[in-house]
């Protein structure tokens, strides 16, 4: 089960999510959490301010301290993270510069605090739970900071760490940080914005879970973005491929790489609304979906660039496409749509 930032945004939401987790206790869920509310954005803002010489953790600190107080949980582990966070920002403010590596270290505090909060609250309610920073269960990545790729060994590491729970030898519900990992040198990395979904998919895949449930704040995968299309409604079922297509072309509901690990293991993926837990949401699976509606949904992408490269000089030049795409790849640009005129003089 994965709960996003808005699902754990404050004490009331955390209590509510705890009740959902409790209702699933018999199914032995593993839980993956995002940072509380907009904490990731706030941490990034704090980084920008620190570069300008101003250290300000007040907002982030207050949210976590107030929430802990309201939930009546011990805040020691969170307090020590807040102290470390302040030290880090102070360092950045002295250097007046920040690397991608430091930025990942900085944003990691959001997820690390939220899992501590949830585990402490569950425990205080008599529900055995234990928090894990991703690396505690062997979630390792390469060193591509801000959009790291997980290493293959995670498929072995995660079950090695959590099978005792799965098999019933340990009763503590694991509450795991989404989004973050460590590289082989021990540096903290992140998997890209929205990456908690991906962590959850890897955990589900590695544990051969019965299902992956992504709990968010809308009624599942909708036919369109409800902010643009007022009468958008929930799509009950999608195939993995349809979900990938819609996500790749702008549907924001899940982080696109999320589908692959569950598709590989044929694990159904459910998108559920934590504000409306009775509602079924969307099921994404390998099953063939109804053909009744040929078009499942409409998505759109903003801030996108369309480039056309054309010219007589391209005709018959061997390797021209390879050079074009290599130039984009060198800049880390992912091309999501290609169209080519029949002769080689135009590629879009
Ligand atoms: N907290 C991270 C973000 O805001 C990761 C996530 O929520 O999936 O991007
Ligand atoms: Mg998300």
Structure description:
There is one protein chain. This protein has 348 residues and is of the alpha/beta class. It has helices spanning 11-23, 39-51, 58-71, 76-95, 100-124, 154-166, 196-206, 240-248, 259-264, 320-330; strands at 2-3, 31-33, 129-132, 173-177, 180-182, 188-190, 212-216, 237-239, 269-273, 282-285, 309-310, 346-347. An eight-stranded mixed β-sheet has the order 3-4-2-1-7-9-10-8, with helices on both faces. A two-stranded antiparallel sheet has the order 5-6. It has a two-stranded antiparallel sheet with strand order 11-12. Helix 3 (58-71) runs parallel beside helix 5. It starts with a strand and ends with a strand. The model has no long low-confidence stretch (mean pLDDT 94). Residues 4-5, 34-35, 40, 110, 178-179, 193-197 line the site of aspartic acid.
Report strand order across the widest sheet: 3-4-2-1-7-9-10-8
Shape: globular
C-alpha-based Rg, rounded: 22 Å
Q: Order of SSEs, N→C?
A: EHEHHHHEHEEEHEEHHEEEHE
**Average pLDDT taken over every residue:** 94
Largest sheet: 8 strands, mixed
